[in-house]
């Protein structure tokens, strides 16, 4: 087993995993605060989760499924050892394994996950989505008079992706020796002032020229936010050239590692996430209440998902919903009975959050998990809304 690099494409592939016998989903946080000389607490929790799963499987009256799952769990023992290996990188670790074949998909993050073990007919991805949404893609750009440094930060991992140097042409200065007359001193001062102005003008041009390239990098990498760090005189010039959601941090941090830089700007990124969520909720509200491209509440959102109209699905991180689904996968609120169906033909489901995420990713919609102020603003509408394509 190898931990894969996580991205949206990988998430869609995991969501597509299904198996009539079941898909096993494992979540564990290898917390360094819980390390001990004997056995870390997080390993004990994982062992307890695994024992509980085995007990449930052993009690399954379906012999074929029972034997298949127990055999699969035995086959996964080497993968469990790697998942629990303290020397492996990553705080949060996730693994998905269908019972009926030998496939294993695993990911690690520098973010905690909710420890749990689940077996359903599909991969259980809501805890994964909740985790990665706490640190959506962002760009950190460190500025100095020598150049700029770009860092990609997403899902808890920060990586250097490139540096651009600023070339400041320096004219050769003839050093004056010996005593200078007042006229020569005045001339030298004027020359120095002109030289410094030319340097500043050249630096400004290069910062402005870096704007479109930075904006294109942000678009290509899907950065939700750009954070510019450095002298405010430099960041203001680049910010005006980049546009979009740009945060300026007046700090000289050139020497920090990518991980330390991400830690340094964490408050700004959290605030940006909240602003982004509040803005999306307000857009959905305004659109829905004016009869436009928005849906509010569970019933309206499920209807839009069924019709593949959702562009962005907004979910309260802490809320869960119950409902029903038809044989062809259409989703309905708990008390609804769609035409041609009955309470007997609907499959009752107490994890409609999971089903909504699956449906949204299946139609290539974006899933945004809300907390704090953004979630509060959606509370009167069951904690769910959508921005629609049409």
Automatic annotation (TrEMBL):
State the source organism's domain of life.
Bacteria
Region annotation Disordered: residue ranges? 321-345
Spell out the InterPro entries in the cross-references. Answer: Bact_RF_family5 (IPR040983), Ribosomal_eL30-like_sf (IPR029064)
Q: Bias regions of kind Basic and acidic residues — which residues?
A: 321-330
Name under which the protein is recorded? Uncharacterized protein
Give the organism the record lists.
Streptosporangium carneum
